[in-house]
Amino acid sequence: MNIAKFSPVDIEERKKWDFRPGDKIKVWYKIKEGDKTRSQVLDGIVIARKHNFEPGATFTIRKIREGVGVEHIFPIYSPNIEKLEITQKGKARRAKLYYIREKAAKEIKKRMKQIKMEKAEIPAEIPEEQKEVKKE
C-alpha cells in the first residue's frame, strides 16, 4: 500500500521545504469557523522541528503578539497548510530553541545570527545596447 495515494497533500513538494530552527517563516493555513473556511497568515521564528519528514513530522513557530508569546505546532503534512514561505534564514547552534521563551525580543535578535536572503532579480529582456560588446 502506498501512503502517497491516500494523502490529500503533495508529499514530494513538502519534502522540498528547507527550513530549520532559527528561520523566520510565514505559514498560510486554513481555519474553519462554523460553515465558513478562511485563510490566515502566521509569521514567526521556527523554534523546533521534530521527525524531519516522517509521517508524524511537526514544526513549532513562535511569535510575540501584543506582548504575549504565542506558539503554534503544525504537522508538516497537514492539509490545512496552504503555503509556506521562508522570509529570513537564521543560523542557530541548537536543534531546539526553547530557551528563547524566557528571553526578551532584544536579546533574541542579538543572539541569533541572521543570514541575509539574496533575491536575484532577473531582467525580463536585455536592452539592445548591452547585447553588443564594444571592442576598443
UniProtKB/TrEMBL annotation:
GO biological-process terms attached to the record: translation
Source species, domain of life: Bacteria
GO terms for cellular component: cytosolic large ribosomal subunit
The keyword Metal-binding is annotated on this UniProt entry: no
Keywords from the UniProt entry: Ribonucleoprotein, Ribosomal protein
Keyword Cell division in record: no
Pfam family, one: Ribosomal_L19
An example molecular function term from Gene Ontology annotations: structural constituent of ribosome
Coiled coil: none
Role this protein plays: This protein is located at the 30S-50S ribosomal subunit interface and may play a role in the structure and function of the aminoacyl-tRNA binding site.
Record-stated family: Belongs to the bacterial ribosomal protein bL19 family.
Xref: NCBIfam families: rplS_bact (TIGR01024)
Name used for this protein in its record: 50S ribosomal protein L19
